[in-house]
Amino acid sequence: MANTTAVHGFELSPIVAGLWRIADWNLDVRQRVRWIEQALELGITSFDHADIYGGYRAEALFGEALKAAPGLRDRMQLVTKCGIRLRAAEKPYRINHYDSSAAYVRAQVEQSLRNLHAEQLDLVLIHRPDYLMDAAALADTFTTLTREGKVAHWGVSNHSSSQFALLHQHHPLVTNQLELSPLQMSALDDGTLDQAQQLRARPMIWSPLAGGRLFTSDDAQALRVRAEMSAVASRLGISLTTLAFAWVLRHPSRPHPITGSGRIESLREAMAALEVQLDAQDWYAIWVASKGHGVP
Ligand code: NAP
């Protein structure tokens, strides 16, 4: 196993801002600069991208803002992902598929650098596990791109614990970015969060509000969870968003939840969760509502 202390030099802000949906926010460059400044003022200094977000356009929207206000880059950590080949007008693949080859990872890293107008990416994640991944070859690619100064740290997303271990054996990984929310709890049981603690590699958490379904879905699980969370939130005097982030943050793997909202007020509510310490009964009440049964 790689020396796990090697991963400890890397820090993200406690809450990370996700840019998956930036193309939907319809902000002009000046508004994007202001949005970034407001996130930084809140203490959100890490920004999560992927090459494919917004139909391959999201990074460039953010990068335009960094170009317009060059002082911002040094105040933030840039995170991005690659490895998914998604069909698009200018990318007529026969099907969507994964690619962790040296040539593709290098090409996407270099494209992300151009899109973001950055000299270096602070963290690059392999977006999904590539079943055809050659772990030793991918580790060599990581090493080469790090030596060239293009990427400071590496990680993965949506990898099982054995997939993480395989790659981590060849190259230190600083995080596994996973889905976790009161509506999606698989990571509590599948071993990934246990491994994160074992290796002290803090996970990043995507869709902590279940992509908004926490507020909008009317399936039975969402109705139960919303009713329970509304009662807890009202007793604690906090919003549902703050409670959802506090619920994720309560996990001992010390996760970094990623916001997905375009509204600064929602980012403020996420940050408020850092001041909330849920007790175990409130945490389990939300677990019970999600599962639809009590603990065994
Ligand atoms: P999320 O926080 O679970 O969902 C954000 C969505 O919820 C937005 O559309 C937001 O709309 C909506 N929302 C927030 N508050 C709401 C409310 N009170 N009522 C109704 N809707 C509300 O996060 P996410 O965007 O799904 O994911 C967060 C980030 O994780 C992404 O940006 C991306 O960086 C990352 N991610 C990674 C992966 C991966 O495979 N690694 C997958 C998905 C996402 P408003 O903008 O209107 O607030």
Give a written overview of the molecule.
This protein has 296 residues and is an alpha/beta fold. It contains 13 helices and 10 strands. It has a domain at 5-174: TIM Barrel (Alpha-Beta Barrel), CATH 3.20.20.100. The chain has an 8-stranded parallel barrel with strand order 1-2-3-6-7-8-9-10, surrounded by 4 helices. A two-stranded antiparallel sheet has the order 4-5. The protein starts with 15 loop residues before the first strand and ends in a 5-residue tail after the last helix. Bound molecules: NADP nicotinamide-adenine-dinucleotide phosphate (NAP). Residues 18-21, 48, 157-158, 177, 206-212, 215-216, 241, 258-263, 266 line the site of NADP nicotinamide-adenine-dinucleotide phosphate.
Structural class computed from helices and strand pairing: alpha/beta
**Helix-strand sequence:** EHEHHEEEHEHEHEHHEHHHEHH
Helix content: 40-55%
CATH topology annotation of one domain = TIM Barrel
Largest sheet: 8 strands, parallel, barrel
Return residue spans where pLDDT drops below 50 for at least 5 consecutive residues.
Answer: 1-6
CATH level-four homologous superfamily name of one domain:
NADP-dependent oxidoreductase domain
The number of E-state strands comes to 10
Average of pLDDT: 96
Strand order of the largest sheet: 1-2-3-6-7-8-9-10
Query: How far do the termini sit from each other?
Result: 35 Å
The CATH class of one domain is identified as Alpha Beta
Count of individual helical segments:
13
